[in-house]
Queue: 2 jobs
Job 1
Amino acid sequence: MKITRIDLTPVAFADPPLLNSAGVHEPWALRTIVEVHTDEGISGLGETYGDLAHIERLKTVVPSLIGLDVFALGLMHKRVGESLGGQTGEDTHGLTGQFSAPGTVDRVYSPFEVACLDIQGRAIGRPVVDLLGGKVRETVPYSAYLFYKWAGHPGAPDDQWGEAIDPAGVVAQARQLIDEYGFKSIKLKGGVFPPEQEIEAIKALREAFPDTPLRLDPNAAWTPATGIKVAKQLDGIVEYLEDPSPEIEGMAEVAASAPMPLATNMCVVSFEHLAPSVKVNAVQVILSDHHYWGGLRRSAHLAMICRTFGIGLSMHSNSHLGISLAAMTHLAAATPNLTYACDTHYPWNAADDVVAPGALSFVDGSLAVPPGPGLGVELDRDVLARLAENYRNCGITKRNDTGYMQKFDPSYEMRRPRW
Ligand SMILES: O=C([O-])[C@@H](O)[C@@H](O)[C@H](O)[C@@H](O)C(=O)[O-]
Ligand SMILES: [Mg+2]
């Protein structure tokens, strides 16, 4: 079954003003929708980042994939690597760690692999989860992903979630997300306010939700000394602390005295980071993400490595749409040692989904693998056309949380660590 054509459609969808250690989300988030077509008339879907430099890299590799068999995934990975010729991408906001040449290959390859697995599944009438070894769980739990946020984008009306800049606002946001989706664990994106304020917010969440597992993620905003202090204050309150401090060395320093496991989606983001991290026990949980770990099969390999070294496994997310959510759910359903609820930004962006409704609905904070062959999701072509038009008109070509923050506060600087 040969690849005959690949369509790349950059899209932009509404994103609320979510705060993080790099600044604040712009009104539009970007993704690229990937459609792979074959000579047998079966097509498959993938979803990836929408920054211009990434789109350019996707375009660079497309010609080398035309004519490939959709089952030849090893060869596909090799061709992506050859076409990129050692290029290394750049993480402009710094929220997902350092890029490397092999990591860039994995990032570019991922949406094509997912689309080919979608095609394989459709061809044999089986869901993608079956191509990954089959379901080890019927449903995949996701966590409520809380953000400090402004009431609305400056100059625009307040959004449906309102302001969350203090413990009361954070608790109210958690209630809103839990009432709507039924989530059974909570993650707070931190690194926005001094750590004492974020500890207070976590304690307020603990009081409001006494039995719900909690996590805090400041995206490396703290020095190791601050990380150690915060870790001690959150002893017994969070199930893990995510990326308190920058780099493998900083995380190892915090880990040596933190009473809870440390998790990362910043210092171990590619296979070559695993050995140095294991050597100094920098992290005890890895947040996998098929968008940069090289697709679903390589993420399954990562899971096996984590199991081998006794490292826990959770799942990371950026702003995304339903194709990504479906792929994450197939992967998580097939991964025995994915023992924490997965992150997802989906609630913040669900209103603009390119996936036709029905396939992805949360029950008690969890998703069942969409029924139907392949990924089990279909594109809504009208929405795709609308989001593609948004992309052409929005004027944004790369995520820039810091630059957007500086529009409102020219003195703002991105500093990591900050406290
Ligand atoms: O979207 C954000 O603001 C997040 O901070 C995201 O970019 C991070 O990559 C991610 O959610 C994380 O867990 O670090
Ligand atoms: Mg994180």
Job 2
Amino acid sequence: MPATILDGKATAATIRQELTARVEALTAAGRRPGLGTLLVGDDPGSRWYVNAKHSDCAQVGIASIQRELPATATLTDVLGVVEELNADPACTGYIVQLPLPRQVDEYAVLEAMDPAKDADGLHPTNLGRLVLGVDGPLPCTPVGIVELLRRYDVPVAGAEVVVVGRGITVGRPLGLLLTRRTENATVTLCHTGTRDLAAHLRSADVVVAAAGVPGLVTADVVKPGAAVLDVGVSRVDGKIAGDVAADVAGVAGHVAPNPGGVGPMTRAMLLQNVVLAAERAVAAEVLTA
Ligand SMILES: Nc1nc2c(c(=O)[nH]1)N[C@@H](CN(C=O)c1ccc(C(=O)N[C@@H](CCC(=O)O)C(=O)O)cc1)CN2
């Protein structure tokens, strides 16, 4: 039987529709959510992501605040925009598009953001909340992966999940998310120091490939019926090359393609984080009134 496609594009469209009513309710209460973005430099891929995020916002009624700096920007320049977005009441949540140019310390930037406006869930306070298992914004790609699996009824509780890649936007927070009591998966986080990746992959019920190595996961290392999600992004001749080889679809039970799988879910979860932050702010006001 051919693998079921985990269609992130269609699922994200459904989520945007669901969010529209919540944005309307917030707007009617005078609390229209607004997403800010800061793009530093001129990488075409990053620009595409930022533009797509704003086009998603327009679809659901979220206001857009776009800031840009040149590739030569200093840490001080970036922190200046971060301070501006922290103070702007129209900006209820924002992101700094990653990666940043080499001369700008990514961690100093994330730390300077107002954690209540951190729409990416990457501020140290919010990553700490993820570790503690308390409410807060969750990193968009990991929560998008969990949501995609949930909407296709792919079980993660008790499952052996192998995540390949330990970056801060995907692998590391995904391991934390999947091992919470609510998800209850057993997670093995593989990386460049892993001695026998194939052995880990062969025993996995769910594989999340986020290494950025084209064709890393091949059919011969996938357990029949496993769910395989391709999150790796490399560009080969201008086209996206994922981490998962095409022949995996002949063995797997579920496949999240790339493009069209986890990427659109990342964007949908960003919108969800913005809406949740605005709803939390309203709830906090009601409590203190
Ligand atoms: N501040 C952040 N920076 C980055 C993040 C992040 O979550 N926050 N993740 C990635 C990039 N990313 C979001 O910014 C992202 C990746 C992919 C997609 C997407 O929709 N991809 C499409 C195809 C896009 C194409 O054709 O080039 C798909 O998969 O179908 C959206 C956002 C790194 N930086």
